[in-house]
Amino acid sequence: MEPSVERLLNQHLAVARDWLPHQYVPWSAASDFDGPLEGSGWDPGQSALPHAVQDALVINLLTEDNLPSYHFEIASRLGRDGAWGTWVHRWTAEEDRHSSVLRAYLHARRGVDPVALEDLRMRHVGNGYRNDLPTPLHLLAYVTVQELATRQAHRNTGAACGDHVGEVLMARISADENLHMLFYRGLYEDAIRAFPDDALVALADVIRGFRMPGTEIPGFRARAARVAAAGIFNLDVHLEHVLQPLVRALGVMTTTGLGPTGREAQEHIGRQMEQLKAQASRARDIYARLNACRASGPATEEQEIPA
Ligand SMILES: [Fe+2]
Ligand SMILES: [Fe+2]
């Protein structure tokens, strides 16, 4: 697939716009913290961000923090030579902006507890991340879905944050994720053309077991439930803004010339989408109950939605 990688890399470099993270941080809102600079410690009352947005930003940031592990997974699976290597390093350099600018924003705005955030980062990055995807096609299918899901998560978090600076920042990051998705999706289109059966089998496997890379964050389930109930990222979003557009754009259901395994995978993806629709509708009822319950009392760590 080297020629495809080269073509899509050139396409990416032609449209990717460089941007400067320091220009997106509200430095004038910042003040010194306690510690060597003898400023003031963080207090929950200082955050103007809605609770679900705080949860979303913590998940999004810690997910971005694990970039060294993602770099290792992708570079060791796809190689660091030729166009693949140029892409992996360029992608890593772009991704590296996301965690640094998000953390600077949260610190300047005093949006979340910086001590708890650092503790979570040490534990999460300390655990590392590995995926056990069986083939390079599975890895490509996974990153295609993941980049689109990440774009949507950042964009929706920005839209819900109630802070114009935050919204502009999250839109900027999600524009990067969109270009990453376009690279991988373009590659997957070519993969479907070159290896239609294997590519559809890998995609079906990835859709069936899909979990975002941040699910290992300590306390993820409780946070993800609040993010889902707030409509920032949930099964509806995953289905309507991630899986359905992707399956359509890749022409999965109209791919012809398949052998028995490819046809089976195609049918499986169709069934999977129907099942997800039913699950999303059940989850909607649970979110409504959770929101009603939250409206009548403060949220607790124990309030969780079953996965
Ligand atoms: Fe990112
Ligand atoms: Fe990305």
Question: What is the secondary structure topology, with strand pairs?
Answer:
Elements: H1 2-15, H2 51-65, H3 67-78, H4 82-109, H5 114-127, H6 136-160, H7 164-194, H8 196-208, H9 220-229, H10 235-249, H11 260-295
Residues 95, 147, 150, 177, 180 line the site of one fe (ii) ion.
Subunit structure: Homodimer.
EC number: 1.14.19.2
Binding site for Fe cation 1: 64, 95, 98, 177
Question: Biggest sheet, open or closed, and with what strands and sense?
Answer: none
Structural class: mainly alpha
CATH topology: Ribonucleotide Reductase, subunit A
From the alpha carbons, calculate the radius of gyration and give it in angstroms: 20 Å
Task: Report the CATH superfamily.
Answer: Ribonucleotide Reductase, subunit A
| Mean pLDDT over the full residue set | 94
Tell me how many strands there are.
Answer: 0
| CATH class descriptor | Mainly Alpha
Strand content: under 5%
Form type:
globular
- Sequence of secondary-structure elements: HHHHHHHHHHH
Count of discrete alpha- or pi-helical segments spanning 4 or more residues: 11
Helix share bin: 55-70%
Number of domains: 1
CATH architecture label name: Orthogonal Bundle
Small-molecule components bound? fe (ii) ion
* Spatial gap, N to C terminus: 36 Å
Enzyme class: oxidoreductase
EC number: 1.14.19.2
Family: Belongs to the fatty acid desaturase type 2 family.
GO molecular function: metal ion binding; stearoyl-[ACP] desaturase activity
Give the gist of this structure.
The chain is mostly helical. It has helices at residues 2-15, 51-65, 67-78, 82-109, 114-127, 136-160, 164-194, 196-208, 220-229, 235-249, 260-295.
